[in-house]
């Protein structure tokens, strides 16, 4: 197989996967933009100074209504933490912002099945609960205070989405407001500007791996022929380690997770890989710049531990449900023809929904052109000031 053939097949695979999830991605961005434009964020930080159930639930809710960009999530959590929020709500917000958002669930549903979307959301709640318990048991007061006053080093991107709200006192009034839809278009554009590179890299990496790396490689990496519990644990540990070195975060890791699942990783291992977008190497370095090495290492350790344990629990739960209700298939069967299917373009419901999604994109682009952004700036993963993208 020539190099040009490999490149062509990898690009075709990447485009095929992107086409499969296009409509769900647009819907997720649209809903996220509407939440930001219609829901006030005033006073959010004031209610997160404690680590009670209410504060944690609010932080997770705010995060789930927020952007799915990993870099935006950690910048927002840092801003909350530096201004007095307890470490636990800040971490809950950060995780929910990247793993409980609507667009991620929809993309998972399209590429990997409803089981993965359900496991991602349910496991996210479990992970936040485990993280809360672990931090409370091991709470390093000295490290937390060191991290709170740590002088940030280097230039780290922070995405500021401003605080522009649609006019109107009721949700219906805001929904009918033309200016409100302009704000929706602005927020969608900024969410897209934050995440498009991660998604592009994710699809390209998945395309290359799907074409170049044979299943035999994954079969060696993910152990087989051992007792099921040992396989589940090993895969749950290896999954995040692959994510750490893959540099792919946010929604961009979904296509690669689909490749890994087709290559033999267990259900729980794939879930662990999906959770690990907050511990890729560039983000660990940003933790260091925000909080210093000691607190950065603590946060990374807490996240890794809870990701692995949660993935094992989710695998056990869904395996149990699968045995109780075999007709439902709570554990989906890996599709060995996944790559062939995503590169077969046909006139079906996906085609129709994607055309409608592209029309929506056209309207949003038109609104952005007719009404240029006058909101606070945003940039690349290497610069800018404070982040305030936290709906309340």
From TrEMBL:
<dbReference type="Pfam" id="PF03773">
    <property type="entry name" value="ArsP_1"/>
</dbReference>
<dbReference type="InterPro" id="IPR053166">
    <property type="entry name" value="UPF0718_permease"/>
</dbReference>
<dbReference type="InterPro" id="IPR005524">
    <property type="entry name" value="DUF318"/>
</dbReference>
<feature type="transmembrane region" description="Helical">
    <location>
        <begin position="200"/>
        <end position="223"/>
    </location>
</feature>
<feature type="transmembrane region" description="Helical">
    <location>
        <begin position="259"/>
        <end position="283"/>
    </location>
</feature>
<feature type="transmembrane region" description="Helical">
    <location>
        <begin position="56"/>
        <end position="75"/>
    </location>
</feature>
<feature type="transmembrane region" description="Helical">
    <location>
        <begin position="121"/>
        <end position="139"/>
    </location>
</feature>
<feature type="transmembrane region" description="Helical">
    <location>
        <begin position="349"/>
        <end position="369"/>
    </location>
</feature>
<keyword id="KW-0812">Transmembrane</keyword>
<keyword id="KW-0472">Membrane</keyword>
<feature type="transmembrane region" description="Helical">
    <location>
        <begin position="6"/>
        <end position="35"/>
    </location>
</feature>
<keyword id="KW-1003">Cell membrane</keyword>
<comment type="similarity">
    <text>Belongs to the UPF0718 family.</text>
</comment>
<protein>
    <submittedName>
        <fullName>Permease</fullName>
    </submittedName>
</protein>
<feature type="transmembrane region" description="Helical">
    <location>
        <begin position="295"/>
        <end position="318"/>
    </location>
</feature>
<keyword id="KW-1133">Transmembrane helix</keyword>
<feature type="transmembrane region" description="Helical">
    <location>
        <begin position="235"/>
        <end position="253"/>
    </location>
</feature>
<feature type="transmembrane region" description="Helical">
    <location>
        <begin position="87"/>
        <end position="109"/>
    </location>
</feature>
């Amino acid at each position: 197989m020539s190099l040009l053939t490999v490149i062509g097949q990898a690009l075709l695979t990447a485009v095929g996967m992107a086409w499969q999830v296009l409509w769900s991605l647009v819907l997720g961005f649209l809903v996220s933009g509407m939440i930001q434009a219609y829901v006030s964020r005033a006073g959010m930080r004031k209610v997160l100074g404690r680590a009670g159930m209410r504060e944690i639930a609010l932080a997770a809710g705010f995060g789930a209504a927020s952007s799915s960009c990993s870099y935006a999530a950690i910048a927002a959590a840092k801003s909350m933490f530096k201004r007095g929020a307890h470490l636990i709500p800040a971490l809950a917000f950060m995780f929910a912002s990247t793993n409980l958002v609507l667009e991620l669930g929809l993309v998972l549903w399209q590429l990997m099945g409803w089981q993965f979307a359900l496991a991602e959301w349910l496991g996210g709640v479990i992970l936040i609960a485990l993280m809360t318990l672990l931090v409370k048991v091991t709470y390093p007061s000295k490290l937390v205070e060191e991290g709170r006053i740590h002088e940030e080093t280097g230039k780290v991107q922070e995405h500021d989405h401003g605080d522009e709200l649609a006019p109107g006192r009721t949700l219906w009034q805001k929904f009918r407001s033309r200016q409100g839809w302009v704000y929706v278009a602005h927020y969608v554009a900024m969410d897209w500007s934050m995440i498009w590179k991660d998604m592009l890299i994710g699809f390209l990496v998945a395309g290359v791996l799907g074409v170049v790396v044979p299943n035999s490689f994954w079969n060696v990496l993910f152990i087989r022929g051992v007792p099921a519990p040992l396989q589940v644990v090993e895969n749950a540990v290896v999954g995040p380690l692959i994510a750490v070195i893959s540099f792919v975060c946010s929604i961009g890791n979904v296509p690669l997770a689909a490749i890994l699942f087709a290559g033999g990783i267990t259900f729980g291992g794939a879930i662990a890989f999906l959770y690990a977008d907050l511990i890729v190497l560039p983000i660990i370095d940003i933790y260091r710049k925000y909080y210093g090495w000691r607190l950065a290492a603590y946060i990374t350790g807490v996240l890794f531990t809870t990701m692995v344990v949660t993935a094992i629990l989710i695998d056990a739960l869904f395996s149990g449900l699968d045995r109780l209700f075999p007709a439902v298939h709570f554990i989906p069967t890996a599709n060995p023809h996944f790559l062939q299917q995503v590169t077969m373009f046909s006139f079906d419901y996906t085609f129709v929904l994607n055309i409608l999604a592209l029309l929506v994109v056209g309207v949003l682009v038109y609104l952005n052109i007719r009404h240029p952004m006058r909101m606070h700036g945003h940039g690349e993963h290497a610069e800018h000031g404070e982040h305030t993208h936290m709906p309340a």
